[in-house]
Amino acid sequence: MSLKVALDKLGYKTYHMIEIIEHNSHHLDLWIELAELHSQGKPYKHVIHTIFENYTAAVDFPAAAWWKEILETFPNSKVILSTRDPERWYNSAKETIFQALWHHRILGLFVPLSRKFTVMVPSLWDKVLGK
């Protein structure tokens, strides 16, 4: 969150997973559509344009999984590569993202929004891990 806060203070409107949760739940459908189109080799840049139409920066997931495609879509963009100790990153992800996914799997039995998260998040991991 620190990079998002810093970019926002510099005047950017920064996209982060929290945006999906708090304001743009319809973006879940767009990220799922992006993954499907990309995996099928179909044009997908229009989806990226739609996702980021009101934003001037992006950090963290889900954007981080799609940085190459975002840079291809917006070739004048700048990329900040932040690095982190892999074990510390995994422990953080385990306590946040993985826990949230577990809760969404349970809630997904009753709540459509949670069901969409259980579709989107694994597609991100597959992309990041090359599966």
From TrEMBL:
Residue stretches in coiled coil: none
Subcellular location: Plastid, Chloroplast
Gene Ontology, cellular component aspect: chloroplast
Predominant location: plastid
A Pfam family this chain is assigned to: Sulfotransfer_4
Official protein name in the record: Sulfotransferase domain-containing protein
Source lineage: Eukaryota, Cryptophyceae, Pyrenomonadales, Geminigeraceae, Guillardia
